[in-house]
Amino acid sequence: MALKVKAVERLLKFSKNENDPGVYRYVMKPELYTSLSQAKVIKEAALRSGVSQGVMQACWDAAGEVIKAWATEGHSVALPGLGTMRFGLRAKSVEDVNDVKTKLIKTRRIIFTPSVDLKDELANTAIQIACYDRNGELVKRVTSDAGEVEDDENEDNGSTESGNNGSTQNGGDTPSGGGDDNGGGGNNNGGVSND
To answer: Measuring CA to CA, which residue among 181, 12, 23, 13 is closest to residue 111?
Structure first.
């Protein structure tokens, strides 16, 4: 199996000046696949496990309810074979304890941390790039070897507390007001960076 990516030659302008001719660059983006329905996933899981679809559906529903209940109680919940899920938040920081109010919370977030096995699987998955020129003609194909997987949870970006990327405990804001969410966030679009 391989992930498929398109590199399309596009005219990019880096200023709002009408006289800026711009430059052509190859911009990469993943080819989008269709979303798989829950019914299809359950059917395939039932085939692979040897249990009936009804039993698999019951297990799927029960696991979903347990994960939702425990995660909303503040637990980091294991997702078998995938990693863990927990809730976090982004909030403004304040100096005075009397200014702490719920209105400081800007967003509530769902944070997924992939397992080592899942990251290894992604790192070992080839990436096939199809390059198209500005006229839409295929000009080149490239296939990658193994690569690295971005892991926002373990990157060191000047954290003030070890292991949580500068955030305060329980998903609070950084002391400098950066708004990190206890190690979460990052680029979750599954795509290829354009830098």
So the answer is: 181
Measure the CA–CA gap between 1 and 88, rounded to whole angstroms: 34
CB within 8 A of 173, min separation 6: which ones? 90, 91, 92, 93, 104, 167, 179, 180
Handedness of CA 142, 147, 150, 155 (dihedral sign): negative
3-state class (DSSP) for residue 2: strand
Q: Is the pTM of this model over 0.85?
A: no
Rounded CA gap, 61 and 63, in Å? Answer: 6
Q: Are 81 and 117 in contact (CB under 8 A)?
A: yes
Query: For 96-137, how does the pLDDT look when each residue is reduced to its tens digit (9 = 90+)?
Result: 999 999 999 999 999 999 999 999 998 888 889 999 999 999
Distance CA 4, CA 1 (A): 10
Burial group, residue 89, by CB count within 10 angstroms (0-12, 13-18, 19+): buried
Single-letter code of the amino acid located at 7? A
Q: How far is CA 126 from the centre of its chain?
A: 19
Beta bridge partners of 87: 110
Tokens of 57: 């559906």
161 DSSP assignment: S
